[in-house]
């Protein structure tokens, strides 16, 4: 189907998906660029529509003619496409996908984000969590929307392969602890006395990463069994949330791989 007008009802609805309110109301989100759309099509996430910019050459065959794309393809005028695209230099391909409805599974290893607000940090943490065996991520109050276009891009497809849960982190951790009586809740803190590389993080681990400026909230620190810091040789006071979280996720993975307890 070809859509010319920027004022088309579908175009206007898709453009609203760049806002959190639009995503919450519709249950849909945007995935932009050939690589991410390919990752989406290979995942369990439902494709609602596939959009292409009429001003460009033929769309990539593997995406355009994918079985999931049949009967969901729309060619848009450059003006209509630009209204939906979130990037400064759009690649010409956008998928509209359904936000997965996911219930918490409370696995043995979870990542909890406590008011982490930078989309780039959150996207990186999603990638790192997937890489190091944490397949459930809790997005606590004040944390950026995982389905915002910037987080989707920064996650590089990881968002389609991990469970993302929006929940009150204190309630989630209480339920997690009931299922993992021997588990450990670990909060990151720049002022912690214990080094992460000398702390036995354990096989059952809930790792809490805090806000970029304030760190983990006092309420969640009070729930933690221990707080750990990353040892540093330089003069930097702290690392950003993505770097710190990735180091700790790797440290947990390393200890598990080496049989540390």
Walk me through the structure.
With 261 residues, the chain is α/β, with parallel strands linked by helices. The chain has 2 domains: 2-98, 60s Ribosomal Protein L30, Chain: A, CATH 3.30.1330; 109-257, Alpha/beta knot, CATH 3.40.1280. Helices cover 33% and strands 20% of the residues. The chain has helices at 9-15, 20-26, 34-41, 61-64, 78-84, 119-131, 149-155, 169-179, 218-223, 241-257, and strands spanning 2-3, 28-32, 47-53, 73-76, 93-98, 109-113, 136-139, 163-166, 184-188, 194-195, 205-209, 226-229. The strands form 2 sheets. The protein has a 7-stranded parallel sheet, sandwiched between helices. Helix 1 runs parallel beside helix 5, helix 6 packs parallel to helix 7 and helix 6 (119-131) packs parallel to helix 10 (241-257). The longest helix has 17 residues, at 241-257. The N and C termini lie far apart (58 Å). The relative contact order is 0.14. The mean pLDDT is 94.
